[in-house]
Specification:
There is one protein chain. By secondary structure, the protein is of the alpha/beta class. The chain starts with a strand and ends with a helix. The protein is built from six helices and five strands, in the order βαβαβαβαβαα. It has a five-stranded mixed beta sheet.
């Protein structure tokens, strides 16, 4: 009550892997021949990503599970398989070429980064300065990320306009418990 929220960045999720792995991936179906790198605590798993992205699910022959997204990232960079990358988590590795997004399929996760302020402090100079700074940082990061990793020719861009059902149910649970 009495607070203000502002979406700073909606989070996209997409497969990422080392360039050597990407060379072997000609279609989504080729994912079955790779190792699925999974963050067990992530709010989106491979099954929900396939659904949200609107592509047929693939059964991976191998998998590696971690409880830390940075371990997933390092495993993907090392060429151990393919992970679902969150755009900000993977941005630096995509920018410097340690990772690539082999299919160009990006799905909206229904999640994001939000700025939450009290109504009383929302227009204070410190809050306004912080908003300007954080927006500039996000824009600079996303500009670097977008300019060095264009979608491959023939890539399919998929964007979900509503949150997946599991996100909506989580939001309803949080509202009911508030």
């Amino acid at each position: 009550p009495g607070g203000r929220t502002e979406l700073l960045l909606a989070q996209e999720v997409f497969p990422v892997c080392a360039p050597a792995i990407a060379q072997k991936l000609k279609s989504i179906e080729d994912l079955a021949q790779t190792c699925a790198i999974t963050d067990e605590r992530a709010m989106i798993n491979w099954e929900s990503w396939f659904e949200t992205a609107g592509v047929p699910p693939v059964t991976f022959l191998k998998g590696a599970r971690f409880t830390d997204p940075m371990l997933c990232l390092e495993s993907a960079i090392a060429g151990h398989g393919v992970m679902l990358g969150w755009q900000l988590l993977a941005a630096d590795a995509l920018t410097d070429g340690r990772l690539v997004a082999p299919f160009g399929i990006r799905a909206q996760s229904g999640l994001g980064y939000w700025l939450v302020t009290s109504s009383v402090k929302a227009e204070s100079r410190k809050v306004r300065d912080f908003k300007v700074w954080i927006r500039e940082e996000i824009e600079a990061t996303m500009a670097r990320f977008g300019s060095v990793n264009p979608e491959p020719a023939g890539a399919i861009a998929v964007e979900r306009t509503e949150a997946p059902s599991y996100v909506e149910s989580d939001i309803k649970l949080r509202q009911a418990g508030s």
